[in-house]
């Protein structure tokens, strides 16, 4: 073998060895990269609380323009205040009878946990249903019986009645006022008396005639009663009924009248002297917040001008400025406690003293009034005082 050939073979062998070494190096097993640290799973969001279901039982239609309309405005106010934290519903025109118990029990069945009954005649039905449903909170308007899960609430409507009386006493031309009454319970009798007392505070010659209709909402009977009062000499009408029928009758017969529970100006703009209104929103907001915060407790609540629940609004342009100023003074006095409507001496219409001089009637007294004050003609009807 020649040296040249031998040299070529040696070079080839060397190159092969180098290639093999390179292949071995390339095939070397690498250490795996460290696994990434596990990421902690985000906690699942807490389930959103179920909204509080709230139901309202109304004695009249929501469009009555007065009592029920005012309550429904309060319901709308809590929807606006609490948003998706609440779900509200209502049943209108629920009679003060066995039907009330049936409707309220149905509200419980539908899952409502806070139920408002908005008229005096629901008292006994609500007591029965509350006794059978301890996990539900009940609120009864204008009543006086409570239970561990039944609270009562009311507005001091007599404050609005008194202010209306002050206006009527100044505006009457013949000193004869008329009142259309619903049912003769202390609440309504108290309002008739307060209206008369307000009128007599500025005009001692005033006398008040009353016609009772026996119902809260009956536009036909309210119209007939208003007509009878006007025909009997009354030139200014007041009411403790739920519809605008009295104001509309006064408008048609060229007399003056007041709105009640809600601003009724639009129903008789020429006749309208002012409206004694109820604002249920402050109380309904409190009641719902109590329930949501777990602070709800039974008891009796009675709010008026001081708490923003009662007001006299939309006084007519022809009401004298001095009278408007007097109304403002009364509101201020009721707010700060410097003025009391039922402060003696006060006598009934037989001359008997019922509140002594300088004494202020307490709520127990006001809650049991069953007499007419001086200036109101006739006698309080007998029968069921509920």
Protein architecture, described:
It is a single chain. Helices cover 38% and strands 18% of the residues. The protein is an alpha/beta fold. It folds into 2 domains: 131 residues, Rossmann fold, CATH 3.40.50.2300; 179 residues, Response regulator (Rossmann fold, 3-Layer(aba) Sandwich). The chain has a 6-stranded parallel beta sheet with strand order 2-1-3-4-5-11, sandwiched between helices. Strand 13 and strand 14 form a beta hairpin. Helix 2 packs across helix 9. The N terminus is likely disordered.
Describe the structure concisely for a colleague.
This protein is α/β, with parallel strands linked by helices and 386 residues long. It is built from eleven helices and 14 strands. The N terminus is likely disordered.
Topology:
Layout: H1 3-26, E1 52-57, H2 67-82, E2 86-91, H3 98-109, E3 114-117, H4 123-132, E4 137-141, E5 150-155, H5 157-171, E6 176-181, H6 186-202, E7 207-212, H7 219-231, E8 236-239, H8 245-252, E9 256-261, E10 272-278, H9 281-292, E11 300-303, E12 310-313, H10 321-336, E13 346-347, E14 353-355, H11 363-366
Parallel strand pairs: 1-2, 1-3, 3-4, 4-5, 5-11, 6-7, 6-8, 8-9, 9-10
Antiparallel strand pairs: 10-12, 13-14
Helix pairs in contact: 2-9, 3-4, 5-6, 5-10, 7-8
Attribute tags:
14 strands; 6-stranded mixed beta sheet; 6-stranded parallel beta sheet; Rossmann fold; 2 domains; single chain; elongated; alpha/beta; 11 helices; 38% helix
């Amino acid at each position: 073998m020649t040296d040249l050939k031998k040299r070529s073979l040696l070079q080839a062998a060397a190159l092969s060895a180098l290639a093999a070494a390179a292949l071995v190096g390339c095939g070397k097993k690498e250490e795996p990269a460290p696994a990434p640290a596990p990421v902690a799973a985000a906690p699942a969001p807490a389930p959103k609380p179920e909204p509080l279901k709230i139901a309202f039982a109304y004695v009249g239609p929501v469009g009555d323009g007065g009592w029920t309309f005012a309550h429904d405005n309060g319901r709308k106010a809590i929807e606006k205040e609490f948003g998706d934290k609440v779900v509200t519903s209502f049943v209108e025109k629920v009679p003060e009878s066995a039907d009330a118990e049936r409707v309220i029990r149905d509200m419980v069945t539908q899952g409502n946990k806070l139920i408002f009954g908005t008229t005096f005649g629901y008292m006994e039905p609500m007591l029965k249903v509350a006794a059978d449903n301890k996990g539900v909170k009940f609120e009864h308007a204008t009543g006086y019986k409570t239970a561990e899960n039944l609270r009562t609430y009311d507005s001091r409507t007599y404050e609005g009645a008194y202010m209306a009386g002050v206006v009527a006493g100044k505006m009457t031309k013949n000193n004869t006022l008329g009142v259309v009454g619903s049912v003769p319970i202390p609440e309504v009798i108290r309002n008739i008396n307060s209206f008369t007392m307000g009128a007599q505070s500025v005009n001692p010659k005033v006398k008040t005639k009353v016609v009772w209709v026996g119902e809260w909402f009956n536009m036909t009977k309210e119209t007939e009663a208003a007509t009878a009062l006007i025909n009997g000499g009354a030139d200014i009408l007041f009411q403790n009924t739920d519809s605008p029928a009295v104001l509309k009758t006064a408008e048609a017969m060229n007399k003056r009248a007041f709105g009640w529970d809600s601003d009724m100006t639009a129903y008789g703009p020429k006749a309208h002297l002012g409206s004694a209104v109820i604002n249920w929103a402050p109380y309904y907001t409190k009641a719902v917040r109590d329930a949501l915060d777990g602070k709800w407790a039974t008891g009796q609540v009675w709010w008026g001008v001081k708490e923003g629940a009662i007001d006299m609004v939309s006084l007519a342009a022809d009401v004298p400025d001095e009278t408007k100023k007097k109304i403002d003074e009364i509101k201020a006095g009721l707010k700060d406690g410097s003025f009391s409507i039922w402060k003696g001496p006060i006598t009934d219409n037989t001359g008997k003293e019922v509140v002594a001089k300088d004494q202020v009637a307490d709520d127990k007294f006001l809650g049991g009034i069953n007499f007419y004050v001086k200036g109101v003609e006739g006698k309080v009807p007998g029968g069921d005082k509920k």
